[in-house]
Structure formats: structure tokens, C-alpha cells
Amino acid sequence: MSKFYIIGTPIGNLEDMTFRAVRILKEVDLVLCEDTRVTKKLLDKYEIKTPTLSYHQHSKISKIEKIFDLMKEGKNLALVSDAGTPTISDPGSVLVSKIRGEFGNDVEVLVVPGPSALISALSGSGFTADQFLFLGFLPHKKGRETLFKEIAETKRTVAFYESPHRIIKTLNSLNEFVGDRKIMIARELTKIYEEIVSGTAGELLKYFEGNPVKIKGEFVVVVSNK
Ligand code: SAM
């Protein structure tokens, strides 16, 4: 029976690899990854010589058929993304679903847990994380205002991913819609310029507008529960 592993990898600091992730990446026949150059850096660090194949949201059906053929031959495959946990705002869920559709219970789909920017940000937030709403990346235009209204209405902690290009726009919207609720921004987690800052949207706007060099890198926004 072929095994298909979904493997979490570091979100910045390459030391954040589990022993199991390293062992399995060495043992499998092929590693499916978003960008082979990004994954190569990780594999090189751990002297993993397993071949790689790119797989992403827009991969052609012929690529999926190739993956199926390998699995029919009994080959074991691993899926990683550029960083963090595959399928969480990353490619992979369609592939996993197609694999289940094709092989049913004749394939073992196994998860090798690892870092995720979402969970890291939530655990560093200090906000209640027993229950939370995760919104992935917010839409750029259509539906954006509706989502901010939803964030304002929910009593739950809300987390989402944001890019440096839109963080100021997003803080302006949060200022308008959620007012005084506490917000935490986790930037560049596990990396050299890692920082976690919190305050109201208005306070965070002042902070970033006063420190434009900090409007760089990767961001997770967490809005406190109420
Ligand atoms: N699947 C990944 C995970 O589990 O962490 C997330 C992939 S998503 C395409 C990438 C987004 O995650 C970035 O745009 C950013 O919002 C967030 N992110 C990833 N790494 C991060 C980091 N080191 N610090 C803060 N946010 C990060």
C-alpha cells in the first residue's frame, strides 16, 4: 500500500524541523513541493537527497495522473509547501481529495505535524484560542467589507494572513470596524526580524506608519475575542 505523507516544514527558521519529518523526507521516493528551489534549501540543510517534483494549485491533470501512477506502483510520496503546513492557505487539499477519490482506503494518508504561522501567531497572541475563526487571506475587493463586518460581530478570536502591501489598508479597516478591540500582529515569526506587536488598530497604524521599515515580510493578524 502506497503512503502519502503531508509534512509541515519551518515557517522561516530551518531548525524548526521535526526528527520524524527529516526521516520521512529521506525515506520517501518523491517529495512534491510548491517551488523546488525553496524546498531544495531545506533538503540540503538536512542532507536529504530525495528527488522533488513541483506541485501547485494550477498543476495540470497530467501531473496528477503521474502522481497516481507512482502510487499505483507502491511508491511513497511526501507533500510539503514552501513553508508551514501544506493545505492551510497552501496547495494540497485538492490533491489529497483526488487521492482519496482515486484510491479510497487503499492508500494511507498520513500527517507529519509541523509549524504553521497561524498556530504560532495564535499561541503568541495571549488571546483566547480555545475557539477561533481563521479567514486565510482576506479578499482584495469583493466581499472584503462584509468580512470586516463579520469580524466586528463575532465574539471569537479571529486570525488571518496578510501581505505587507495591504497591512496598512487592513489596519485602517479594522480601525473603522472593530474600534478598540485588541489586535496582535505577528511579523516574520521565527526569523531575524521577528516581532509581535499589539494594541488597538489605531495604535498599530501609528506604529507602522512611524516605522515604515517594518512594513515588510510576512504577517499574521489576530483580533482578540470580546
Ligand atoms: N501553510 C502555511 C502555514 O501553515 O504557515 C501558510 C501559507 S500562506 C501561503 C503564507 C502566509 O502565511 C504569509 O503570507 C503570511 O501571512 C503567513 N506567514 C508565513 N510565514 C510567516 C512568518 N514566518 N511570520 C508571519 N507570518 C507568516
Automatic annotation (TrEMBL):
Top-rank EC class of the record's enzyme: transferase
Domain Tetrapyrrole methylase stretches: 3-204
EC number of this enzyme: 2.1.1.198
Catalysis performed (reactions): cytidine(1402) in 16S rRNA + S-adenosyl-L-methionine = 2'-O-methylcytidine(1402) in 16S rRNA + S-adenosyl-L-homocysteine + H(+)
Subcellular location: Cytoplasm
An annotated Gene Ontology molecular function: rRNA (cytosine-2'-O-)-methyltransferase activity
Biological function: Catalyzes the 2'-O-methylation of the ribose of cytidine 1402 (C1402) in 16S rRNA.
Name under which the protein is recorded: Ribosomal RNA small subunit methyltransferase I
